[in-house]
Write a structure and sequence with these properties.
It is built from 18 helices and no strands. With about 350 residues, the chain is mainly alpha-helical.
Length: about 350
Amino acid sequence: MRKARALFAQIGLVVLIVVCFSISGTSHAATPEEQAQAFFEAGLDLNKQRRFNDAVVELAQAVKLSIDNHKYHLALHRTYLAMRRGRLGISFYKGLVREHPKNPTVHYWLGRFYLASNDLDSAVREFQRVTVLAPKDEHGFISLGHAYVRLEKRKEALDAYLQADALVPDIPIVKVGIGNIYFAMGKNDEAERAYEIALEKDTSYLEARYNLGLIYEKKGKFGEAAEQWKMMLEADPNESDARERLAKLYFRAKLYMDAVKEYVTLSKVRLDDPELYFALGEAQILLAAELSNAEDRATLKMRARESFERVLELDPKNKAAQDYLNRLKAMAPSRKGS
């Protein structure tokens, strides 16, 4: 009897140990989100090794385990595009849509794949579906606006951006989208307000800054216009459109030295632009007229002559350039006595 009790005690101890280990193992089992994160990290590591096919497998698992986490969808999207296999991405997401027909995140990323593949009508359809399934999420409206812009449907794009702006006010990319549409429609006051808000929050939108400068110029706010284009050139010295607008503004304001400086810089890049060399020549002549030093005047007139000669090389029938050149040649003898 005593032996039997001892045996039962040993069995109970073993059972207790097994149960404890079972409970301990259960408490440390990975959650679906933890598993998704592990697949995601493995996918990123494979991407670094440029093993994109393997990375897609890992990232797809992350997406399936955490269907609403945009981080995993974005990584998968980028990997498919890096492989130049956007159509495979579309097929994958069509499958997800069949499994999760009412999930806005899945429809959103299918729309993003259509957008990347330039299937704009299909992208619009998916983003519209997102706005129905998640009417308080601004992302669907923003992407719908982008798709409509590319389809050149301004009114529809503006409506989408305005709905996004109503949900989350003053997102820079939304304000730029609104500003661009108003600018194209000639509604400069509305465009100006949208651009100013966007650029206060994010200074990187160079197109918005360029257009804002044009609006200021039209309104006679020449100092504000110049400031916008100067900031563009600080961000990107190769931004030739902004430099040309700035040069023209300086010329209009009779700041001929500044105009010459900007045109000379442009001429080093745009070597075959007769209009540019003509503007440079005019600015050089007018600057020369302001100088008191005879030698400086002569040097500038010589530079102007070279500018107009370049115009005629590029455009032999340019009568205005020929007239300037004739006058400069006629004046040449008098420079010796000055």
